[in-house]
Amino acid sequence: MPVIEVLVLYYSRQGSVAQMARRIARGVESVDGVAARLRTVPPVTADHAQRGPAIPDEGAPYAQASDLRECAGLLLGSPTRFGNMAAPLKHFLDGTSDVWLSGALVGKPAGVFTSTGSLHGGQESTLLTMMMPLLHHGMLMVGLPYTETALSTTRSGGTPYGPSHHAGVGPQPQPLSAEELQLCEALGRRVAQIALKLKA
Q1: pLDDT tens digit string along 93-106?
Q2: CB-based contacts of 98: which residues, under 8 Å, 6+ apart?
């Protein structure tokens, strides 16, 4: 029976970030006593109103503030949008002032992940800017050390700031490479291990 849960929160448009989230969740759940809670956020319109059904037709449920309060750690994922996170995820985070005021995320570990259409499409800047709101929440950022050998062998995505994926352009995204998959699992495992130690 898991003793703690790590929240894997993401927005995905073409499916690549969702695939990364599932692989990260696998890494989380490779640690005894830790479960992954997969959540997504709804798309928004140009005026930032929620678009679509209140409950997604498929995939992970939409996140609530309670998911943040209850988690022992957080993994946050988004496609890149001009070197930054996508608007739906930013919109969700912008609405977490109550969580911030309560200090519910202070001292909990967090990591970030992203997918881009182009190889140099802002992977690292997206990861770095995704860290900013988490630092404001008082979270402890977890990256990928170079002891993860896939960082040195990857020819597509993967950074010390967090896993990334080069999806390519076109209607069908490229599948995650073996190295990208390894790095996703590694970050999930690292955040879960740290969350468990901090909880103890």
Answers
A1: 999 999 999 999 99
A2: 65
Q: Which two tokens stand for residue 94?
A: 């912008």
Per-state percent for the chain, helix, strand, coil, to nearest 5 = 35, 20, 40
Token duo for residue 67: 């998911």
Residue pLDDT, tens place only, 64-123:
999 999 999 999 999 999 999 999 999 999 999 999 999 999 999 999 999 999 888 899
Q: Which residues pair with 162 in a beta bridge?
A: 159
Task: Report all structural domains of the chain as residue ranges with CATH numbers, in order of start.
Answer: 4-199 (3.40.50.360)
Q: Tokens representing 29?
A: 């759940």
Strand stretches in 96-147, DSSP E: 109-116, 140-141
Give the end-to-end CA distance of the chain in Å, rounded to a whole number: 16
* CA Rg value for the chain: 16
Cα–Cα distance list, 141 to 34, 137, 154, 169 (Å): 18, 11, 23, 30
* Angle, alpha carbons 108-111-117 (nearest 5°): 155
